[in-house]
C-alpha cells in the first residue's frame, strides 16, 4: 500500500509541475507581450515599458517561472492588476463560494444518480428503467447553463421562491448567514448536478446490472437472501468502483461547469473571477486560478485512486 | 442466382439498412441530426425573417404571426437566428472534431504500432491533458488568443485529440494482437502498411461512434463559450449567445430563453442517440445493456 501511495504521490507532483509549466507557457510566453495585453493595444509605449518592469517581464522566463512556483509554496500569487489586491486573498474569498457549490453539486449528483441508477437496474427492462434512462438521455443533452436559466425562469421569475442570482455571503454580520448562503447555492448546484447525475445514473445502472449477473450474487440469492438484501449487501459495494471513478472525472467537469454557472447566477466564485479577469486582461489572476482549478482536479483524482484501494482491497501497488 | 463475391456488399448494406430502420434510437437520432443539418442548409436559401436587420418597432414580439418564434430586443427574427445558429454549431462541431480526430487517431495509431516508450510517452501526455477540463482550457486559450469562432474551434479541437488518441490506441492494440496481423507481419508487411490496411479499417466503426459523441460535446462546448461571449461573435447568430442575451430579458420575454436551448438540446440528443444506435449497429458486441 505504501509503495502504491508513493507512486501515486510522485505522479501527482509531476502532474502538478507539468500543469504549472503549461499554464505558465500558454499565458506568459505564447501571447508575446503580456504588458501590452494588460494595457490594451492603444497604450503608450512608455506606459507598456513601465508595466513590463513592474510585472518583472524584463527578467528571463525561467526565472519568472521559478519565482512564481516559489511564491506559490508560500501561498503568494502576486498582486492583481485590476483589483490592486493580493491574488491569494481574492482566490481565498472566491473559494468560499466555489468549493461549497462544487461539493453540494457532487452530493446532489451522487444521491440522485445512485438511487436512480440502482432503481433502474432493479427494474431492468420495465417502465421504471425505461423512464429513468429516457430522462437520463435528455439530461445529458441539456447544457447546464440553459438548465440554470430554466430554473431561474421557474423558481425566480414565476414562483419567486429563490432570488435570480447573487450571493449574500456566509457571515451573518454582513447580511448573509449559513441558510441564506446555502439557499443561494441550491439552484446553481441543481443545474450543475442534473447533467452529471444523468451521466452517472447510466454508469450506475450498467455497473449494478453487471454485478447482478455475477455468480456470488446468484449464490447469495440461493442462500435465501431477498433481491433487495443482495443488492444492499453484495451488489452495491462491488458496483461502486466504476461509479467512484466516474465521480472523480465528473468533479473536474463540475469545477469547469462552475465557470459558466457562476456567471448565470452572478455568484462571486472562482469561475466568475477567472471570467472577469479575462475581461480585465488580468492574466496574473487567470494564471493562478486556472492552475488552482487544474490542481483541484488532479488532487480529486488522486483521492479517487486512494478510494479505489479502500473500496477494493484487491487493488494494490502496480495494479494501476 | 448471382453468387459472385461482389454481390455481398449490396446485400450487407441492405441488411444494415433493415436493422438500422428497426433500431429506435438510431432512427430518432438520425431524424434529429438530419433536422439540424436541414436547418443549417435551409438557412443558406431561406429564413422566415431577417436574423440581422434591426427593427425596433417589432422588438420583443411574441411567437406567431409573421415571426414564428417572435423577435428579440432588436426586432430580429428568432426563428431565423435559430436556423442560422445551426450553421455555427455544425461548423464548430465538424472542424473541431475533424481536427481532434485527425491528430488523435494519428497519435493513437503511432502509439499502437510503435509500443514501448513511444506509447508510454504519448499516453502519459494524453492522461496529463485530462487535468485541464476542456471548457477551462478553451476559456484559457480564448483569453490569450482572443474570443472568436476560429479560436473556439481550435480550443475544442485540441481537447478532442487525447480522447481520440486513447480510444484509437486501445482499439488498435486489440487488432495488433489478432492472428491475421501476425500473418501479415510474417509476410513481411511494414508497420505502416499493416496500420493502413488492417488496423485502421477495423477500428473505423469505433471511431465513427466516438466522433458522433464528440460532435455532440463540441456543440455543448461551443454553446457554453458563446454564452460567455468567447465563441461565435456578433452579428453571426449563435445559440449560446442568444441565451445570454435572452437572460437579461427574462421578465419581459421568458420564451426567448427557451428556444435556443431547445435547439441545442435536440441537436445534442439527436447526435447522442445516433452514436448509441451506430454503436449497436456497427458492432453488436459493443451493444450496451438495454
Major sheet characteristics of chain B: none
Class derived from helix and strand content of chain A: mainly alpha
**What is the number of strand segments of chain A?**
0
Strand content of chain B: under 5%
- Could you tell me the CATH topology label of the domain at 82-283 in chain B: MetI-like fold
Alpha-carbon distance between the two ends of chain A: 12 Å
Main sheet properties of chain A: none
Oligomer: heterodimer
Q: Would you tell me the overall average pLDDT of chain B?
A: 85
CA-based gyration radius of chain B: 23 Å
Number of helices of chain B: 11
Taking all Cα atoms into account, the compactness measure Rg of chain A is: 24 Å
- Uncertain spans of chain B: none
- Low-confidence stretches of chain A are none
Q: Roughly what percent helix of chain B? A: over 70%
> What's the level 1 CATH class of the domain at 82-283 in chain B?
Mainly Alpha
CATH superfamily of the domain at 82-283 in chain B: MetI-like
- How far is it from the N-terminal to the C-terminal residue of chain B, by CA? 39 Å
**CATH architecture descriptor name of the domain at 82-283 in chain B:** Orthogonal Bundle
Number of helices of chain A: 12
Class computed from helices, strands and strand pairing of chain B: mainly alpha
Structure, explained:
The complex is a heterodimer of chains A (320) and B (290). Chain A is mostly helical and 320 residues long. Chain A has helices at 2-29, 34-39, 45-54, 61-73, 87-122, 127-141, 144-158, 178-212, 215-222, 227-264, 270-279, 283-311. In chain A, helix 10 runs parallel beside helix 11 (270-279) and helix 10 packs antiparallel against helix 12 (283-311). The radius of gyration of chain A is 24 Å and the shape is globular. Chain A starts with a helix and ends in a 9-residue tail after the last helix. Chain B is mostly helical and 290 residues long. In chain B, helix 3 runs antiparallel to helix 4 and helix 3 runs parallel beside helix 6 (149-158). Chains A and B meet through helix 1, helix 6, helix 7, helix 8 and helix 10 of A and helix 5, helix 9, helix 10 and helix 11 of B.
